[in-house]
Amino acid sequence: MFYELMMSMMRKKEQIMYATIKGTLTENDGVFSGFSVSNYLQIQDTFNLQDIKEIVVKINLPSSALNKSKYEFILVKGNFRISCYSYATYFGASGVDVAGVGNIAFGINFQPDTDYWLKYKNDGVNCSCAYSTDGTTWVAGGSKSASTISSSTSITYLGLRNDTSVYFDGSIDLNNSYIKLGATKYNLQAVVGYTIVGSPTITDGVVSGFSSSDYLRIPRYNDIESANFEMCIKYSNISVTGHRIFQFGTISTNACQLRTLSTGAIFYDTSTKRYTTNKTIDDYNYVKLKTTNGLENNVEIFVSADGVFWEKTTLTETTNTLTFSNNVIVLGRGIDNNATIDLNKTYIKINNKLWFNGQQA
After folding, report:
1. Alpha helices in the chain, H assignment, sequence order
2. CA separation (Å) from 336 to 233, 246, 263, 280?
3. pLDDT attached to residue 333
4. What is the 3-state secondary structure (H, E, C) of 286-305?
5. How far apart are CA 229 and CA 237, in angstroms?
């Protein structure tokens, strides 16, 4: 009992903070690169600079970024900046600019093609910085009094300066990066956002005004053909006249898709099978699709009226012969004009990890 209580307390002190991918970035198992003025990461949470107790971010700057004679902005929150400057053979002038305090130097020239863990810390008395090349052994940098730190709730960016004019030329490893607010450590995790096609209406995260030309697009996961997939959608006013709730791909008739029959029954089409449920769309407000090892295997569909109590549907399988297309996830294309989808309660998980949580790209 004591062990379970301690584990519960530890979990509460270590949570996840999500960063939305803005534009298109290159990802390799949580390591992001390809930053530009339109491609970067933006932290979803709003918090005060004065509340930050610690930041750790793992970076690598390639040789191709040398001699650009510009600042490389790694993490920026208003006038709080972790950065370095590119010279001909190294990255120098490296440090943390803290609003109200000034620059705190790491005290090292960073070498190209080398992993560095960069740390900023505010212990309530002093703010300081340190670096590591293995994430374990830290070398102390400069330190200044924390008494003059300015209050700031500006947006937090990774890979971009907040005026969108200067970006980071290296990679940022979110698996080894975190922000600590008070006693709680928030591990950083990236999620994708939606883009708008046409002119659907979005009010406080609730989307309406759908049509065949007014809907939302969500980027697909690269390895979705072999991934475990889960999507939950909260909806209202979807009629029982055969509407498409979401689909993979842009070809309306040749895509894996969750739809309703003319009877209102919910069904899921894959390239080889149709899975028809024993539930009708207007009896519920939530629908959840789960598959294992790709979009066509071990299909399960659940429904719920309140998002708390879920009923697993009974599926009837029939044969399909569709051409499978999954280049993008399309949400709401072809459902009723007066139907709504609540993005605040809609999500996608890939391999049990959140991939989309209703935010805009």
Report:
1. 2-12
2. 15, 13, 15, 16
3. 83
4. EEEEEECCCCCCCCEEEEEC
5. 26
